[in-house]
User: Fold these one by one.
Assistant:
Number 1:
Amino acid sequence: MKRAQTLSLDLMIAAVIFVIIVVVFYAIMISSDTTPTTASLHEEANAIYNSLNVERNPSTPYPVIDGTEIDPAELERLYGINPDVLRETFNSNNNFCIFLADENKNIVFVYDGTNNKAGVGDDEVNISQGITCNMVIP
């Protein structure tokens, strides 16, 4: 009878080790590199641009760009919208920032009805040295 008890104890230990290995394997697979690729970020940026462009998306809720023109009233409205609402609208899973730059690549601050803001999007995004998205200047 002792042989049968030893065999079942060995079987239980092997089963526990197997379950631990499976759990560790899935944990590693789930937490593995979830950093977006440059190509996927570029695709998402183009999708957001197209969502703001009336010519490319006539039914856009944010008709900021019309050809080569920017509608100042729509831009002001866009800058006043909560970034979480924009993330949902643009179906974005990544941090983003929508901002303007002039021909010299200087950030153009936009009045959102209350403040002059560098951009609209996630606060963690650095646009330029010392300038983050949603940064407000007096």
Note: The first strand starts at residue 65 and ends at 66.
Number 2:
Amino acid sequence: MSILILFVGTLFVGIWLNMHYEMPDRTDPAVIKETARAVTAIQRSVTATNGAKSARCSARLLKSEGGVAMVHASCALVPGPSAVAGPFRVDRDGAVETAGDGDAFQNDVKRMFGSRLGDWYLNHANSFSYVRPPVDPASGANGPLTTN
């Protein structure tokens, strides 16, 4: 009986940890600064990768650790009407990585974000609201994405 209770308790804690993830406080000045750094790098990368004239992005910082930013971003390409959205990892030096398509997506997200945040992201990615990016990406007014 005690083994069953231990198993059920362990299972419950594991499920709760997978469902719960505390994101950084968007009003914290350090989070605002790190989000702006990530958005600048993502805009540069998305522009170059997609052959656009420019990109206007908004991002929600999910985690920042050791100079590495893990974000969900939504970008409008100029000229439009194309858009890019998804998980991005921005390294200390500004190198940007995003998850591949199809079968690679889940493994890439877990590799980029780590197992715990990766699992959380995969279970909650559809809850992100895709907000219209700001008109002037150079203004620093890149508003974060919100979750429903």
Note: The first strand starts at residue 54 and ends at 65.
Number 3:
Amino acid sequence: MPSPIWLLILSIIVNAITALAAPVIQVYVTTRMSQPKPNPVPINPKNLIHTSGGKLASISTSIWLPVVGVLFNICILPYEILHAKPVTGLSVFVISVLVGGIFYNFTLISESSLLRLIGKMVELDQHRDESTGRMLGIEGVLH
């Protein structure tokens, strides 16, 4: 019994969203994070664009988006393997898309973890420089 075509369409959509949207959003977030932060807090309240952009940035850099992709692909994969009789080119393609999606999402999980670790290391380095500058009395020189 061949697998339903909606599973193929759904898995391709989920993998396309993860494959295309996550790296683009991640580049957007990293460029926004690398911009200098204003020293005084602005008096103007945040508008809808700021709050929705912050939520989108936190979701895109979250480790949970690829985890959902992995779980989705793992849930569909046994169904696809068990119900793909006789084996056709379409069923082989669907299984390879699911396995590729699992590997790609695992890559995104490791990349997200590494970016978080690098961000924490940068924060510790900046804190160390500030502390050293205060102890030596040369604030602002070490940055």
Note: Residues 5-136 form one domain.
